[in-house]
Amino acid sequence: QVPLAESGGGLVQAGDSLRLSCTASERTFTRGNMAWFRQAPGKEREFVASIPRNGEFTYYADSVKGRFTISRDNAKNTVFLQMNSLKPEDTAVYFCATSLTIYLNSQLASQEQSYYYWGQGTQVTVSS
Predict the structure, then answer these.
(1) What angle do CA 96, 52, 26 make, to 5 degrees?
(2) Contacting residues for 65 by C-beta, under 8 A, at least 6 apart
(3) Is the separation of the CB atoms in 79 and 64 below 8 Å?
(4) How far is CA 48 from CA 25, 38, 60, in A?
(5) How far is Cα 56 from Cα 103, in angstroms, rounded to an integer?
């Protein structure tokens, strides 16, 4: 059983919006932070955004601050990524991830090694 399943990717034009969703198959997979990472062709995977279980804090990469918004619905075991004002450089495979521990530190919340469960990714392509 896949622990995390992403959806909502697609092909859009620069300036458009997309909303990604990621649903966990079990509630236990969501007890920590839920986060989004992305990997562009030929590049390493990078942090995008993270939100702890209580949703009191959110953490963003500088490249997406002010354009992307992360949120979560614990009742539905789901995390969302609202992406506005998309740019061609946002083109990547977007991965959802969850941690076993709640991180309220931006440095820890942004590190790949903080996350235990990963989805298979959803492609986002932004044309110019």
Answers:
(1) 55
(2) none
(3) no
(4) 22, 7, 6
(5) 11
**β-strands 122-127, 10-13 pairing:** parallel
CA atoms of 32 and 105, how far apart (whole Å)? 13
Q: C-alpha angle with apex 65: 107 to 127, nearest 5 degrees?
A: 120
CA angle 124, 125, 128 (to 5 degrees): 145
- Over residues 30-47, the pLDDT tens digits come to 899 999 999 999 999 999
The per-residue pLDDT for 59 is 98
Q: Strand, coil or helix: what is 10?
A: strand
**Encoded amino acid at 91, one letter:** T
User: What would the pLDDT profile of 4-40 be if each residue is shown by its tens digit?
Assistant: 999 999 999 999 999 999 999 988 888 999 999 999 9
